[in-house]
Fold these 2 entries.
Entry 1:
Amino acid sequence: MKTVRIKKGWRFKIAGRPTDQQEIRLASQTVALVVDKLPFVKPLLLVKEGDSVNIGSSLFSDKKNPDIKFLSPGGGRVSAIHYGPRRVIEEIVISLDKSENQETFDAFTEKALDHTSRDSLIAGLMTRGMWPLIRQLPFRSIADPKSQPSAIWISLGSADPFQPLSQVYLKGQEEFFTFGVRALSRMSDRINICWYGDIPPGFDFLNESVTHRITGEYPATDPGVVLYHTKTTPAENQDWYINGQDVIGIGKCLKTGVYPVDRIVAFSDGTPENSRHLKTRTGIRLQDLAAGLSIGPDKQWIVGGILSGDATASDKYLDLNQTSIMIVDVSPQSEMFGFLRPGLHRLSRSRTLISTFSSALLPVNTDMHGEIRPCINCGYCASVCPVDILPQFTCKSLWADEIEEALAYGLLDCVECGLCSFVCPSKIELAECLKDARKHYHKELNQVA
Ligand code: SF4
Ligand code: SF4
């Protein structure tokens, strides 16, 4: 096992970390497949409003590759298809039947799996709705089934304490995880399994299979960061990656022949009593996850991580890939004579605030504490970037339409962690700028191809 130590990053000093306690939250009358959060997918609808569907029925496919199917996370009736600006499909909502029916697929035994060709296995995963769980660097797009990656990276655990603990989602699922790894190993000669920190007692079955032990602060466990620090050839830039929980999903789907919709989510409302792991289902409505809690209008829901996720509303649904839900305060946090205070309780990386020198966990809110100002060349953004990009210069190149220069600075290595924006004292949305540029560059490349 190789130890990869990531030196740059940020230690999450945010209060309200989910405990390893689990609570079951399945009750919901509707679920939805969130479409507009799927990267670079052009949906070709296969259902219309009013249609009956089972768990695992195809709802749409990708126009660029119609073999890649996106399946229903619930059984019932398609009650609404919501469109956003320019008729972009946002979500397909399913009103659930009391007893949900389930599509079934052929199940695999270990022997059958080992004798299935790579192409048939890939085709099987596309039909079973599992393919979108496998992503490809550097754009984080859904993996190109026609490509052959030099390695597939599996992440177990995260340096972000608001993501699910691997010990929690692996417990009792060891058999499916192992089966999922076996299936993935049919698609690449090299499977890299990364564990964050030390493997705890009770997970000895991983001792043989974990290839990389990751240490460091957020976002040390991001596959793009690990790859950046370990790659030896340019071919590795297009490696595939997948989260440990999704490997379990693949194993379960292949072994049982049913489309798995169960999901462990790390939930935090900032309080120690409510922040925990929730055993729920994909596509659940967010407010159903917080049933029984009093969540006022002065709160903001964030899905996917405080620094890299999206702000959303409580009547939205859980995306296919998301596993972290946070509810943070949006109340104005202005303090009387705030500029005279030492900032003991203000979350920041700036050494001008005393909180930097304390290890206490602090509450988080959406207050920016100021307006956007010109760059002061402080270098904070570069000092935290885990893949050694100079975010300020890369963004300046992009604003001047110098894409080649931005690429030379390492635009494609960016892992979209959001740290550079967080630390910037001038409140410049560097990460957003880099994310948009990467998206446009990917679109351009695909138009040319
Ligand atoms: S440029 Fe910013 S968003 Fe990109 S990896 Fe570096 S710190 Fe993260
Ligand atoms: S952190 Fe902000 S102000 Fe400082 S160099 Fe980077 S962009 Fe400029």
Entry 2:
Amino acid sequence: MVEEVFSIELGASEKLTLKRNRYKGTSEKRISIVSGIHGDELEGQMVCFLLNDFLQKNQEKITGIIDIYPSVNPLGLDSISRNIPFYDTDLNRVFPGFQKRSLPERLANALVESVKGSEIVIDIHSSNIFLKELPQIRINSIYAKKLVPLAQYLNVNFIWVHQPVDSLSSTFTCTMNKLGSKALLIEMGIGLRINKDYCYQIFYGIINLLIKEGFLDYKLDISIKKPLLSPGGKIHFINANQSGIFISETEHGSYVKKGQILGKIVSSLTGKILETVLSPVDGLLFTLREYPVVYEGSLIGRIFSE
Ligand SMILES: [Zn+2]
């Protein structure tokens, strides 16, 4: 059932509305699946479509409450904007929000109040317009114990357990973890595009989690990936030493060898190669730059070595 969770008049007869689609079984345990906090990340749109389509065709197999919030920043989605337009605010830095402040804070607050009480929360992101990501889950190490077992159900390639970062304390997943949910952040693909394979991969992962956690009585006939776990190795960041145009020579998501050429930074004016970017280790190239304009220090890729 499609429900309106929050709405606010914007003037000029425009309105911002936060909607969810709720599926209800007999049990009261609840999971919330959220996407579109960043308006330029679109793969969650396809995952939510696949989930809604599946759940509508399998209503009798639903045992708990499954809430889907496909588009949390609808103004951003409509205007190809990562942030909330007019306010130029990154919604994922204002949680838990406030009821009586600016529009971004009210929207954040409305989402938190609506999702609060969910046993599990899944927040789907699609990187940004610069970097392409293998399907992965990022977990603050203070929540690793409660989240890693769940993350392993989600059919991702990689689980990145990182040290707490101050700037991430006002994200949606961090807020929901503080409020007692088990909240997982998925990153995959790249901004402004849909990678269908990744969307199906995460769709099957979420169905698998719904089955394993008792929200769905269903038999899934696919094998779920066993993800690499970051505590079992090291993450290497590769940054540009020159400004120019980056042309990659490696497949994103591939295993690379130490010394292998990842790509070249070239000058379009002089025709010179400014830098040949080499892999510092053997490992999985799970992040790779797609947006070619780079400056000294720009992130080119990330490699996980076991
Ligand atoms: Zn995002």
